[in-house]
Design goal:
- There is one protein chain.
- The chain is an alpha+beta fold and 236 residues long.
- The chain has one domain: Aminopeptidase (3-Layer(aba) Sandwich).
- Helices cover 36% and strands 23% of the residues.
- It is globular.
- Its EC number is 2.3.1.257.
- It holds the Pfam family Acetyltransf_1.
């Protein structure tokens, strides 16, 4: 009971913070590969309607292919998750001097949004974890190091708030994403369907994790498998 209370308190304290980015000033901007970006915190409950519509549109553009026939049902789930009180966001905007050069990007009266992250603080296997629900990038900012930068920021947020691991879900057919997370040292978790009972449970996704202490490693990790060569050669 004491352990449960302690873990619940860790989660409560993490959610009590209004801005999880202010503790990492070096990560509030991204100026590399021709990009000039700023990171802004947001919560699911306070998402303005135009931003909701943008998030839905980018999700469909990036994820309809990997989900295939499952997308219509998954899209409904994501719409509910998007505005949940537990949802926390990093909204990434491109600072521009000449708006006409970025007419293809969505804007809401300000600088265009080029990426967003949605994450939550959860308890999994009695371990407090940061779970990455979404990491979505516009095509114009992909393959420029931004995805890696955002994952590094999430790992810092996790550690700062006493989370013992970062978890996320990836569609198996999304080879580029699988390769991307493999390069960042994420492994298939022991709670992933393929590890729980691969002969009974057939799912189209894997749960990946990176752990920060021995207890989390023992409960959430498995021996790293060698990815198929076609996956290793893919890139996000």
């Amino acid at each position: 009971l004491d352990r449960k209370k302690a873990i619940d308190e860790v989660i409560r304290m993490a959610y009590a913070k209004e801005d999880h980015l202010s503790e990492f000033p070096a990560f509030l901007t991204y100026q590399r590969s021709g990009l000039n970006l700023i990171m802004q915190p947001q919560s699911g409950e306070t998402l303005p309607a135009p931003l909701k519509r943008y998030i839905q549109a980018l999700l469909k553009e990036n994820m309809e292919g990997p989900y295939g026939s499952e997308w219509p049902a998954e899209e409904k789930v994501k719409k509910r998750e998007m505005v949940a009180s537990e949802a926390r966001y990093i909204i990434v905007r491109q600072l521009v001097e000449d708006p006409e050069k970025h007419d293809g990007l969505w804007r809401d009266g300000g600088d265009p949004v080029v990426s967003f992250v949605q994450f939550r603080f959860l308890i999994d296997e009695e371990i407090p974890v940061l779970y990455v629900y979404e990491l979505q990038l516009e095509k114009c900012v992909q393959k420029k190091g931004l995805g890696k930068f955002l994952m590094q920021l999430l790992e810092l947020v996790a550690r700062k708030n006493n989370m013992k691991a970062v978890l996320l879900t990836v569609q198996k057919r999304n080879l580029a994403a699988m390769a991307f997370y493999s390069k960042l040292k994420y492994v298939v978790s022991s709670i992933s369907p393929s590890r729980v009972d691969p002969l009974v449970v057939l799912k189209n996704y894997e749960i990946l994790c990176k752990t920060f202490d021995p207890e989390a490693k023992a409960k959430l990790e498995v021996r790293k498998i060698k990815l198929d060569r076609s996956i290793e050669n893919a890139a996000l």
